Amino acid sequence: MDLASERPASQITVAELAERAGVTRATFYNRYSTPLDPLIEALYADLETGHQLEDRRRAEGYRGPELLRLAVSEVADHVERFAAVYRHALGDPADRGVYDALVRHFHHYAVSYMARADGSGLPDVSREVTAQFLAHGFAGAIKAWLSDPTVTKEDLVDAAVASAPAWWAAAGAAPLGRQDG
User: Fold this and answer.
1) Which of 20, 102, 135, 155 could serve as a FRET partner for 111 with CA atoms 20 to 30 Å apart?
2) Mind listing the domains of the chain with CATH numbers?
């Protein structure tokens, strides 16, 4: 994470990463293919922490727009913690994998969310198309936030909450089972 905060992941060598981690290159290659792999793993793990907090809040009785705002704020906090990593990735086409991983994460989240929604106003349309639409939209909003210094974190949260489908806040009261990858 430190190296990816300094420069794009595509510019980090396996030798440099292995040395920083105190492992051999062979050990690195036993688990990963490129320096991008452990970076995405670490980012996913941090996003998962936010989802666990969302599940706890849901179990405590948080619902609707309040829960949606808190969940979006958690994602914004994640992006803010790793803003340098995301900004490097957005600025280097060779690091598109970081953005793609963010889209993939939101897609899996949306699919899981809709699966447990128990029909709470969920439209009768393709869930796959809906999940992709939501994932790309939310990742695009994050990209816009990171690309424009005049856009605040509160602006991102307000826009994402306002853009969420009406059924989103009403759907899925049960804790979410995770699907990462």
Assistant:
1) 155
2) 35-170 (1.10.357)
